[in-house]
Amino acid sequence: MNLEIDALDAEGRGVARNAGKVVFVEGALAGERVEARLLESKSKFDRARVTAVLRASASRRDPACPYFGTCGGCATQHVDARTQVAAKQRGLEDNLARIGKVEVGAMLAPIHGSEWGYRARARLSVRYVEGKGGALVGFRERKSTYVADMQGCEVLPPAVSALIPALRALITKLSIRDRVPQVEIAVGEASVVLLFRHLLPFTPEDQGLLRDFADANRVCVWLQPEGPDSAAPFHPLAGEGLYYALPEFGLKIAFQPTDFTQVNPAVNRLLVSRALRLLDPQPGERVADMFCGIGNFALPIAARGAQVIGFEGSPLLVERARQNAAANGLVAQFEVADLFRPNLEHFGRFDKYLLDPPREGAASLVHALPDAWPRRIVYVSCDPATLARDADTLVHKKGFTLAAAGVVNMFPHTAHVESIALFERP
């Protein structure tokens, strides 16, 4: 079918109409005329994929990665960076208006950084396929459980991307090559960790291969035989651990490869800076950092002189946050709390909140807010739909105004939308 593409949605798909029905077209851009093949028909929309571009958009470009289109790690390399960010911003605005039914006082300029080599965290799938000549290591193919046959990745740091062929060769040599399902990558300021998940023990010969690989490539190898708690360093046992820096606040924040940290450290620095400007913590104020993790926002808040308490559901992350506070010479309090069933009254009144919830959002927290406080909330979101839902509660039931909001392009070339919003009480 031939289609005129009217818009680009937040997932990087073209949006068209065919006989009055919405069609989401993979690989199409706004302003294009394309030939497309129907993939799926639903009652309210169809899904199609471009087979030929009959009239190209000025925003179209050649993908930088030779595996784009097969690998499922990226969705929009064929779109220039400016158009990608604009689509995400429009998606945020649409969610706030349609789901939240709220007006934004001011749209913030998007936060973005380099679109290549940005990804300091990645989970690579592994599959031994004899017909492919050995082990495949990479992201899964688009809409498939198969592992993409790739020799590098443009969104990984170049030194890490260059390790993929060596990783394929290493795993092919292992005795349990078909029982190593994943390799997780964590890149810090001074070290790189490769965490191997394995379903059977490594033999002594395997362990020798792993040590040789770590030494030859100057990386640290960790092993995880069971759940996340079983992850432990293997070789070398000594050396500088993982950390990322927040230079504006004079901080180094240590983490383990299984801890949650943002995948894009350069954009995270910009995000923390904006969050602190919007929150504006002052000495003497009491600030609650909800879903605080290892202290990404709480420690900069403490560095500004405010009294901060970070709340987090994971005891391991709370302990890591306490260690980071001590290592940076800061006074900050961290507490284990179930923020999906909040019971925080005994901690007293807070002047300001920083919210950084998972994709589920912070519905229970915002519903439980007292009428008198806090007076300001900075909400960092990884899902614009749940942000919009919580904005509805904050504005229409809790007396806040949505003073500002904007997107954070934490994951270039993907449909993932990170955003930040400022809520204030008059």
Walk me through what this model shows.
This protein is an alpha/beta fold. It has three domains: 2-60, OB fold (Dihydrolipoamide Acetyltransferase, E2P); 86-114 and 243-424, Vaccinia Virus protein VP39 (Rossmann fold); 121-187 and 192-235, OB fold (Dihydrolipoamide Acetyltransferase, E2P) (Beta Barrel), CATH 2.40.50. It contains nine helices and 21 strands. An eight-stranded mixed β-sheet has the order 6-20-21-19-18-15-16-17, with helices on both faces. The radius of gyration is 23 Å and the shape is flat. The N and C termini lie far apart (53 Å).
Characteristic key phrases:
3 domains; 426 residues; OB fold (Dihydrolipoamide Acetyltransferase, E2P); six-stranded mixed beta sheet; 23% helix; flat; 9 helices; single chain; alpha/beta; Rossmann fold
Give me the secondary-structure topology.
Blueprint: E1 2-8, E2 14-18, E3 21-26, E4 33-41, E5 45-55, H1 81-100, E6 106-107, E7 121-129, E8 134-138, H2 158-161, H3 164-173, E9 182-187, E10 192-197, H4 204-217, E11 220-224, E12 232-235, E13 243-246, E14 251-254, H5 265-279, E15 286-290, H6 298-303, E16 307-312, H7 315-327, E17 333-336, E18 352-355, H8 363-367, E19 376-381, H9 384-396, E20 401-408, E21 418-424
Parallel strand pairs: 3-5, 6-20, 10-11, 15-16, 15-18, 16-17, 18-19
Antiparallel strand pairs: 1-2, 1-4, 2-3, 4-5, 7-8, 7-9, 9-10, 11-12, 13-14, 19-21, 20-21
Helix pairs in contact: 1-9, 3-4
